What we know:
With about 325 residues, this protein is α/β, with parallel strands linked by helices. It is about 45% helix and about 20% strand. It is built from 13 helices and 13 strands. The chain has helices at about 5-20, 25-30, 45-60, 80-90, 100-115, 150-160, 175-185, 205-215, 240-250, 260, 275-290, 310-315, 320-325; strands at about 30-40, 60-70, 95-100, 120-125, 140-145, 165-170, 195-200, 220, 250-255, 265-270, 300, 305-310, 330. The strands form 2 sheets. It has a 7-stranded mixed sheet, sandwiched between helices. It has a 6-stranded parallel sheet with strand order 2-1-3-4-5-11, with helices on both faces. Strand 6, helix 7 and strand 7 (about 195-200) form a beta-alpha-beta unit. Helix 3 runs parallel beside helix 11 and helix 8 packs parallel to helix 9. The chain is globular and about 60 Å long. The N and C termini lie far apart (about 80 Å).
Amino acid sequence: MNLKADFYRLIVLAVALTYGLCPAMAEESKKFKVLVVMSYEDDYPWVKEIREGTDSVLKQSCEVRYFYMDTKKNLAGGEQKAKEAYALYKEFQPDGVIVADDDAQTMFVVPYLKDKVKTPVMFCGVNADPEKYGYPASNISGILERYHIDQSIAFAKQLNPSIGTIGYITKDGSTGKAISDQVQKESGAYQIKSVDFKLVNTMKDAVTVTESFKEQCDLLFITSLEGISDEAGKPMTQKDIIPILVKNFGKLTISTSPHLLKFGVLCAVVQQGQEHGSTAAEMLLKAMNGTPVSQIPITKNHQGKRMINATVLKELGITPKPAAIKGAELVKTEN
């Protein structure tokens, strides 16, 4: 009996089974390559949430590269960043792509990827109607971002039943305009009357609008103001913007962004970037594993979390009924 010959035959058989007779087994060990392109900066809280979601799904089975277009801080440089993202796409040759928020759809996906490549692309955090970008496309699906504005208003009214009017302020950009469109479509069903929706580009205008709303409204909706400019023309952060506007308004404020509560907004029913990231990643895995993109329908976010700033609640002298805050996450204003 030739043990050495038998040993080599076993090795040859194992290789044949793995790579010849059972190619699926070999594929199981292969890591997909995924490119994730973010519209905004890597330190933006919403971006961090989306990355947490994508990593929770892809980290173990995929090689993931992230690219940031920085359009909150430098919108004018977005098109150049999109070119760089496409150069990375060609160099990396990913099996799939995830693209977050509206700026990257306009500047990157539509010019470079939509119906131009076979690579499946899943979007997340998109505020506009998908038809604006020609979605769904042959290689594109994803998850739309819809704010829980009606639920946030209802939450504020639970805290103070006397409120009857609301104004809205956001930055003049793709996100702000999409939120304005959403309010126009939905506001007839809100529990209180919508007075006006203002889009601003500068802190000076934001202060003026807020002071005007103080005379017109009981409640102010604030979100997506990152990047409006100060008197010197430099982009500001919401950490600097929100406390000033909240103080100027002096009444109840709501948002749909969790990180704004720690800057002084009273309450919100917030969506979570983790839901967007994990949903887009799960959809992409289906596509990379062979499901046609046409069989992966566009969806939207559903999860909402009630949050309230206990510091602001006390400052406003509001004593809500226990049922109104039951189950809500309590936070405090950061100094």
